[in-house]
Amino acid sequence: MIKxxxxxxxxxxxxxxxxxxxxxxxxxxxxxxxxxxFCRFYSVQDIGVNAYMFQINSTLVIxxxxxxxxxxxxxxxxxxxxxxxxxxxxxxxxxGEPQNYKRLRxxxxxxxxxxxxxxxxxxxxxxxxxxxxxxxxxxxxxxSMQDKSLWLTDTSHRVxxxxxxxxxxxxxxTATILFDINNNAVIGQVATKMSYRGKKYARELLYWLGHRLxxxxxxxxxxxxxxxxxxxxxxxxxxxxxxxxxxxxxxD
Length: 252
Description:
Blueprint: E1 2-5, H1 13-16, H2 20-32, E2 39-46, E3 49-56, E4 59-63, H3 70-80, E5 84-86, H4 89-95, E6 101-110, E7 125-126, H5 131-141, H6 148-160, E8 165-169, E9 173-181, E10 184-192, H7 201-215, E11 219-225, H8 229-234, E12 238-248
Parallel strand pairs: 4-5, 10-11
Antiparallel strand pairs: 1-2, 2-3, 3-4, 5-12, 6-11, 6-12, 7-8, 8-9, 9-10
């Protein structure tokens, strides 16, 4: 049974802290609470299973340590038609490919200790950049990122609440700490302005950022879709695992 949650006490925080999807849920719970319609939280209950899921704008994230019955999940997806569905591999595999959805493979990487080059100049890192400038860089690297106002609203809110941290290097390369929970930091939204690619700026920023986080005893991970995984392999990130996400194929 899927039931929307309106009370913060209904979450098993200690259990959610143990998995990537649970920590992602907690990051949005800490950012927004349960009072916003665009960020809804649910419990998913079945015999012997108590799981959670949440939908933030058009992304649905399912958190469960065990497989779940698919019928009700598929009904939810059919009704609300999220643009992307993220969940552990055993849940995505059980869902198959619902109508108008396709599977995308992505790889989870972990930062392996790489020191920044001696030539790296930390003063060229801006840790409080103009977010509109950052968006323009991301829009070149992620063509599906089309709603600027939505991204700005969400990112600025999470930055103000201390959930996320955005960095801009040399005015042309960006990366974000999406959340840092239970000594697990997740990096995302890594991109370089098209006219500056090939200069190893993304590598330099990631080495610096990963090293800083490792000095704080954080485990540093990120996800990359298959067309970007070779970059992270090339710069020395180690592969933790492969999984799939579901993404809508229709354009409306």
